[in-house]
Amino acid sequence: MVAAIGGNALLHRGQPPEIDIQRANVRDAAAVLAALAEDHRLVITHGNGPQVGLLARQSEALAGVAPVPFDVLAAESEGLIGYLLVEELSRHLGADRVSVVLTRVVVDRDDPAFGAPSKPIGAVLSEQDARLLAALHGWAVAPDGAHWRRVVASPEPLEIVEHDAIEVLLHAGQVVICAGGGGIPVHRDTEGVLRGVEAVIDKDLTSALVAERLGAGDLLILTDVDAVYRDWGTDRAAPIRAATPAELRAIRWPAGSMGPKVEAACRFVERSSAGVARIGALGAAAAVLRGDAGTTVSSR
After folding, report:
1. How far is 169 from 280, CA to CA, in rounded Å?
2. Same structural domain for residues 35 and 91?
3. Domain check: are 188 and 146 in the same one?
4. 125-155 pLDDT, tens digit each
5. Is a pLDDT exceeding 70 seen at residue 42?
6. Residue 191 burial (CB count, 10 A)
7. How far apart are the C-alpha atoms of 255 and 258, rounded to whole Å?
8. CA 149 to CA 161: how far, in whole Å?
9. Distance CA 58, CA 143 (A)
10. Mean pLDDT of 95-105
11. Active site members
């Protein structure tokens, strides 16, 4: 099983990004994940939105120092969250049963996403400050609600560089934490050497790729909502308990929230022989896995 947990599950909306707060949230998540590991070979992926945003803002605030490239920020956030997760999971499973793999994910440098950066990162800015920083650092900037922010490309994940290492650890009985924040974005240069790129890969799409390549039976996407809802945000909102990829693709989903989760679930089911994807709340993971809660996506 691949269990993907959102970055907001580790730092809830509105909470200050203090390590003690994140540790408390990770402690709750670890109890849920450890229970899943009792009956499954488990791979854990995770988001990093709040954490990598904080690292980016800290980098931008250092006067006279060039901002840290985003592939490096992604690696830093993988290490930070991976450490917090392994620390708490070890209390349940033992220190010798949990491993963290710093994971690079290959993207195509010619992906159209690089021509249309869309993923907001870093500090909220005024339009004037955003344009000044864009001119200074060569950034792309765009409106984000009433403010402006830096935006980076969000290309398709194509290859998990550390796949073999993840597979070896999994078969050795390890619970493996990997591909945090969608992985460290890299591309192959003209000589085939892997180079980091300024991008953010969607963690749910990477999680689906990890699950597909490992031949997982289940992809569990655990978030801060209890299911996929039709007509979300209206008085007609209703949870979808079970659906096929075709049924979900017939509905238009918000690009920045549920859309990537639905797309990841659909891809995994379509590309695996008998895989099932499930989307639901982290705290109800066991019920989501049984099909008693959340949304189940299958080929049926």
Report:
1. 27
2. yes
3. no
4. 899 998 998 898 888 998 887 888 888 899 9
5. yes
6. 6
7. 7
8. 30
9. 21
10. 97
11. 7-8, 119, 203, 261
Q: Which residue has the higher pLDDT, 298 or 70?
A: 298
- Domain that includes residue 122, residue range: 117-152
Same domain as 251, residue 136:
no
Query: What own/partner pairs with CB < 8 Å and gap ≥ 24 does 129-133 have?
Result: 133/60
What tokens does 91 get? 């209390």
CA 61 to chain centre: 25
> How far apart (Å, rounded) are the C-alpha atoms in residues 53 and 165?
28
Distance between CA atoms of residues 77 and 47, nearest Å: 9
Sheet with strand 119-125: strands edge to edge: 119-125, 147-152, 140-144
pLDDT at residue 18, as a whole number: 86
CB 289 within 8 A of CB 278: yes
- How many domains are there within the chain? 2
b/e burial code for range 87-122 (CB count within 10 A of at least 16 → b): ebbbebbeeebbbbbbbbbbbeeebebbeebebbbb
Residue pair 222/280 in contact (Cβ under 8 Å)? The answer is yes
Instruction: Mean pLDDT check: name the lowest of 21-30, 97-106, 122-131, 186-195.
Output: 122-131
Asked if 123 and 81 sit in the same domain, the reply is no
Higher pLDDT, 98 or 134: 98
- Tell whether the model's pLDDT for residue 20 goes beyond 80: yes
* Short-list 296, 295, 299, CA closest to 229: 295
Q: Regarding predicted confidence, which is higher, 169 or 70?
A: 169
Token look-up 């930070």 returns: 80
Tokens of 96: 């010798």
